[in-house]
Amino acid sequence: MYYLCNENFEHKLKKFDIQKIRADFPILKREVNGKPLVYLDNGATTQKPKTVIDAITNYYSDMNSNVHRGVHYLSQISTDAFEVTRRKVQEFINAREDAEVIITKGTTDSINLVAACYGKAFIHAGDEIIISAMEHHSNIVPWQMLCEEKGAVLRVIPMNNYGELDMDAYKSLLSEKTKLVSVTYVSNSLGTINPVKEIIKLAHAKNVPVLLDAAQAVQHIAIDVQDLDVDFLAFSGHKMYAPTGVGVLYGKRELLDSMPPYQGGGDMIKDVTFEKTTYNELPFKFEAGTPNIEAGICLAVAIDYINDLGIENIRAYEDELLDYATSKIKEIAGVKIIGEAAKKSSVLSFVVDGVHPYDIGVILDKLGIAVRTGHHCAQPVMDLFNISGTVRASLAVYNTKEDIDNFIAGLTRALKMLL
Ligand SMILES: *Cc1c(COP(=O)(O)O)cnc(C)c1O
């Protein structure tokens, strides 16, 4: 087992056995442009451990078959494996029951499901939906589309220059017109960890349900949906060491039960006649059609991987790395960190006076260092800071102090060439 003690950073690194963790991720051995890969684009997607990669092959070589349908052996074992994921997710986020876990394609799909179904049932002309100034486009556009369709109004919680939400402004936005609050747990462009428990408490005081976009939280921070008392929670498999094409929507049963289905098709029905169709129970009511079965099954394997390391250990380790990276980058003249919230997770976004983020990204890539540049699907955030984009280094559990040192050296070199 891995164990973190509260002594100095070097000591923690050794205890965490980072080399063993890195050996679990085959891609980390490869070179890019003749240099060892330094992968710091985990906010976009994480790499996959061998257990997950093997589970994909194993699914196709050993159990490929459609789920929830066949009477035959293979269909039963693939269904069982798929349903193991639902229970793993239930335990991982501490949902009351596995029927509250809807398997989707990802965060975007999960949020669109709520916008479509909750929107259809509960949003009317003049109603208000509150989001925040730091949302990913996935948590802006579905609500804009819904508001346009229904004649509802989108309200936005502003933030300060550190990238922290203005909670007083939030309080004054909440009113009897508010029908839903949908905010991110952790900002993908700034790294801010929002005070989600307080956000939920304040909304509930007005009987308003809350959706949390946990796409950047679930792989870094322990989440307990009952303790948070959150109404909906959305996240993606591919940012938590699982394949693309699978994600989760958690919803409280009473809310999910009160919503109409999302898409129509197989699996979501109980009985179909041309006169009338009755819908299936939760969770299947919201899972029309054949899902991405292998990705679904592999999500359980990724959760096992996280659980083996311990999410609290992962968080402590990544926090140390982020602190280290932050202190190192501050030593470089001209660098301005974008997003300096008191509580942050795993994201280091920055700009450099007189240099385009893209040019930094290209030079870092030549050195084998993968970062993201641009607006990070959060254009309104960039507008607020009056910039076109940032360079973003984002961390996962397999990153090392050496990765950070290489990144800082690469950045220093890039700036020498560009300035
Ligand atoms: C990545 C991300 C999304 C979108 O996730 P998809 O996997 O692309 O559907 C939404 N919100 C945040 C905060 C993200 O980081």
TrEMBL record:
Q: Note the coiled coil stretches, chain numbering.
A: none
Query: Looking at the keywords, is Transferase present?
Result: yes
Question: Which parts pass through the membrane?
Answer: none
Q: What UniProt keywords apply to this chain's record, in alphabetical order?
A: Pyridoxal phosphate, Transferase
Tell me its EC number(s), please: 2.8.1.7
Which InterPro entries does this one have?
Aminotrans_V_dom, Aminotrans_V_PyrdxlP_BS, Cys_dSase_SufS, Cysteine_dSase, PyrdxlP-dep_Trfase, PyrdxlP-dep_Trfase_major, PyrdxlP-dep_Trfase_small
Which cofactors are required for activity? pyridoxal 5'-phosphate
Main enzyme class? transferase
The UniProt record lists the Aminotransferase class V domain at 38-407
Query: What reaction is this protein's catalytic activity?
Result: (sulfur carrier)-H + L-cysteine = (sulfur carrier)-SH + L-alanine
Its family?
Belongs to the class-V pyridoxal-phosphate-dependent aminotransferase family. Csd subfamily.
Q: What does this protein do?
A: Catalyzes the removal of elemental sulfur and selenium atoms from L-cysteine, L-cystine, L-selenocysteine, and L-selenocystine to produce L-alanine.
**Protein name (Swiss-Prot/TrEMBL):** Cysteine desulfurase
Which species is listed as the source? Sphingobacterium bovistauri
> Taxonomically, what lineage is the organism?
Bacteria, Pseudomonadati, Bacteroidota, Sphingobacteriia, Sphingobacteriales
